């Protein structure tokens, strides 16, 4: 082995290529392959490692609140989530088409999990994603506005392919919050996708915003390119909680 080759590969940050190269030196059988075949395997390893690193980077930047994947979703007509809908959304065409997704339903019915699972799939397919709870997003926008960097903040968020706004309009907005949300939605409109989850049905959203004209503008931009899913059923959190042994608790 030419001792300088691993060092040169390291300087070029070709770690996948380098690992595969060392394997070819130490495992019998590779020497019988043609140069082109061996080179092809080295390049494939480098491409695979770079792809995996890119996925890990996108998932890290997404800051998902929970681990969720498409494979974990269970179709249930009773819950308003059939297999056809899951399959349609999992190809992420709605992101390619710059469409929004609105997921409504009672607390604990799986809105956040569904939004995260779809965004996780988007990261695997090469899209960028970011998770926010609505209160945290509003706070970030407020701080940016007070610091005079709101336009910069919105520009950064508008480059993300899909943003989850969880618990959207869980409570009423004030006028400043409504204007900040409008600026963000306006900038993202028909350029990228946003997933909104909310316990409140869309029919109540207008009443939770103080300025009717801006409310009209917000809802128009959200809804006119949006797919809608209404999840039904009891809270899934109740099913996940273990039963409490009251006898043991009373003895303690």
CATH architecture of the largest domain: 3-Layer(aba) Sandwich
How many domains is the backbone divided into?
A: 2
Largest sheet: 5 strands, parallel
So how many helices? 13
Secondary structure: helix percent:
40-55%
SSE ordering:
HHHHHEHEHHEHEHHEHH
- Structural class category: alpha/beta
The CATH class of the largest domain is Alpha Beta
Round the mean pLDDT to the nearest integer and report it: 88
The CATH superfamily of the largest domain is P-loop containing nucleotide triphosphate hydrolases
What name does CATH use for the topology of the largest domain? Rossmann fold
Quaternary structure: single chain
Rg of Cα set: 24 Å
Rough outline = elongated
| Side-by-side strand order of the widest sheet | 2-3-4-1-5
Strand content: 5-15%
Beginning-to-end CA distance, first to last residue: 68 Å
- Low-pLDDT runs: 246-252
The tally of strands reads 5
Concise synopsis of the structure shown:
With 252 residues, this protein is an alpha/beta fold. It is 54% helix and 10% strand.
What does it look like?
The protein is of the alpha/beta class and 252 residues long. It folds into 2 domains: 4-62, no CATH class; 70-238, P-loop containing nucleotide triphosphate hydrolases (Rossmann fold, 3-Layer(aba) Sandwich). It has helices at 4-11, 15-26, 35-62, 83-90, 93-96, 111-124, 134-147, 150-157, 175-188, 202-205, 212-223, 236-240, 246-251; strands spanning 100-104, 129-133, 162-166, 193-198, 226-230. It has a 5-stranded parallel beta sheet with strand order 2-3-4-1-5. β3 (162-166), α9 (175-188) and β4 form a beta-alpha-beta unit. α2 packs across α3 (35-62), α7 crosses α8 and α7 (134-147) crosses α9. The longest helix is centred in the first third of the chain and has 28 residues, at 35-62. It is elongated.
């Amino acid at each position: 082995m030419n001792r300088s080759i691993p060092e040169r590969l390291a300087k070029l940050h070709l770690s996948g290529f380098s690992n595969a190269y060392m394997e070819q030196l130490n495992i019998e059988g590779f020497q019988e392959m043609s140069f082109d075949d061996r080179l092809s395997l080295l390049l494939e390893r480098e491409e695979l490692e770079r792809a995996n690193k890119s996925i890990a980077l996108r998932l890290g930047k997404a800051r998902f609140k929970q681990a969720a994947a498409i494979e974990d979703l269970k179709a249930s007509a009773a819950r308003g989530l059939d297999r056809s809908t899951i399959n349609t959304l999992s190809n992420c065409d709605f992101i390619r088409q710059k469409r929004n997704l609105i997921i409504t339903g009672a607390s604990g019915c799986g809105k956040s999990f569904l939004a995260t699972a779809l965004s996780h799939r988007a990261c695997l397919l090469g899209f960028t994603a970011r998770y926010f709870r609505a209160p945290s997003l509003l706070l970030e926008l407020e701080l940016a506005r007070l610091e005079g960097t709101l336009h910069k903040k919105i520009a950064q968020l508008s480059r993300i392919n899909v943003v989850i706004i969880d618990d959207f309009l869980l409570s009423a907005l004030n006028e400043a919050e409504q204007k900040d949300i409008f600026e963000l939605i306006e900038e993202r409109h028909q350029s990228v996708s946003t997933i909104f989850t909310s316990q409140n049905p869309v029919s109540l959203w207008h009443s939770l915003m103080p300025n009717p004209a801006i409310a009209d503008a917000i809802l128009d931009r959200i809804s006119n390119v949006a797919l809608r899913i209404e999840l039904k059923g009891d809270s899934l959190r109740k099913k996940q909680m273990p039963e409490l042994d009251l006898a043991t608790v009373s003895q303690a």
